[in-house]
Amino acid sequence: MSSTDLPPLLRLPLHTIAHILSNVKTIQDLRPIILSHSIFRDALKDNFNSVASAIIMRQVAKEALPFLLALVGSQRLSLSDPAAAKQLLGLAASTCPVALPSLGLSRAEYAYMSSSCSSARTIYRQMASEVKPLHHSYLGPAPKDRQYANHWEKFRISRAVFRYQLMCNLFCHRLCLIRMQEFRPRFDDWDLKRLFFSSFSPWVNEELMCVFVYLRRKVAQAYDDITLHDVSLNHERIEAIPDVNFISQIHWMLCMGLPFLSRIASGGTLRSTGVPQFSTGRSATRAYNPHTILLCSKLVPGQLTLNPPLRDPALPMHAWEKSQILQLDPQRAPQNSPFRAWLGAHFKNSISRTVCCDADTNLWFLGYVLWTSPREAAPPLEEVYETCKRVRVAEPIFPRPGKEWGKDDHLRSRRQRKDIYRAGGEGFWPREGGDWSEIYGLTEAQKKTLEAKWLHEGLTESTRESSGTK
């Protein structure tokens, strides 16, 4: 058969087909394509590095690439080699351009990078649609694209997402327990944690805190949803532990990787999978708690060196000399930058209270250092501080779902779910009760028997309403 008799696709050179393949959205999208025809498989085999690199570079902002590469490197890091860990953190802080094809990454590493980029994309899209409008409502003003992330906002959130997973890989993974036990004489965990945070500015660490708080809130919502409604978990009492920082299951889920977290962030629930199993024991609980690791970022402000040095570390920043303020921002960030948002929010605070301070929880909820405000609308720093002060002392912007339930609601739900479970039922029971659409394994007769029992015991909505009117 002559070349002119071949189908048009088979007449194309492999490098041209490889260029076509490089336009897919993710590495994972290549699989069905190469399975559809051998010509795609051959083109990818001969040009894998160039195709994979092109896909990754379209998925991630070039400014976030060093953080992504550090994240990949943490997958193969030897836990007994502190020098390698420090070199990895140096890579994350590097601003040197990197040519991906020259790094010799494996196919699995490219796939991991692509999956991480997809997860970061899901997270910044969800944050932009959910958090950004609230940020401008509380802290204002609102730009035209208030529900979409611009290039720099995508970069900031992606950087924070990659740093968060890097932190989990280094400090929160189950193998950390082995490292703590076997390599304590040679591996200074605290030194590495200090390096992890001190390599970046305080406001960059606050970006990480904002993303962590967002992910923690979404995971806590998924955990509360299943704990409050799953009939098999009728023994759980979430009202007994109001602070999510003390719930080990939430710590564990926060360390389960970006694909899991992005699914939860986009509205996924635990109803199909249940609460994942996690290690027990006091040491395991500490090791899996990302919030404990983030507390180390408090060390960063105290390590700043200024000329002239501060005469008093407790001096609020509005009392600093102008030259000292400028040293915090040597690149002279614009008026709508995260630096200025951070500086304004803490303008009357000492430098030690500018990072990882629990009083800033509402500001973290709003992602106060993630979004770009209109440049022409930059208010004075004193005004920014007063606005942030009002937000700090306001009621929690995102209270836990379980806090909306009264004591009677919790008691009634637990007793009803326990009865359903003992009768052989499975599934999820709503707060108000009476809706059997998600309960399985019970006959209609069993349901009527349970309803009669609850009516007699005063555990139905109708009984409670009638008793309340007497």
Describe the protein:
The structure is a single chain. The protein folds into 4 domains: 3-58, no CATH class; 65-131 and 143-297, no CATH class; 310-393, no CATH class; 408-469, no CATH class. By secondary structure, it is an all-alpha fold. The protein has helices spanning 8-11, 14-21, 30-36, 38-46, 48-59, 65-75, 82-92, 107-130, 132-138, 151-172, 175-182, 189-198, 202-229, 248-254, 258-265, 282-287, 290-294, 299-302, 322-328, 338-345, 361-365, 381-393, 407-422, 444-457, 461-469; strands spanning 426-427, 439-440. Helix content is 56%, strand content 1%.
Quick structural summary:
By secondary structure, this protein is an all-alpha fold. Helices cover 56% and strands 1% of the residues. α5 (48-59) runs parallel beside α8 (107-130), α8 packs parallel to α15 and α10 packs across α13 (202-229).
Globular, elongated, flat, extended or rod-shaped: what is the shape?
globular
Q: Give the helix/strand class.
A: mainly alpha
* Beta fraction: under 5%
Overall number of structural domains: 4
**Low-confidence parts, pLDDT < 50 over ≥5 residues?**
178-187, 462-470
Distance between the termini: 93 Å
Alpha carbon gyration radius: 26 Å
Question: How are strands sequenced across the largest beta sheet?
Answer: 1-2
Characterize the main sheet.
Answer: 2 strands, antiparallel
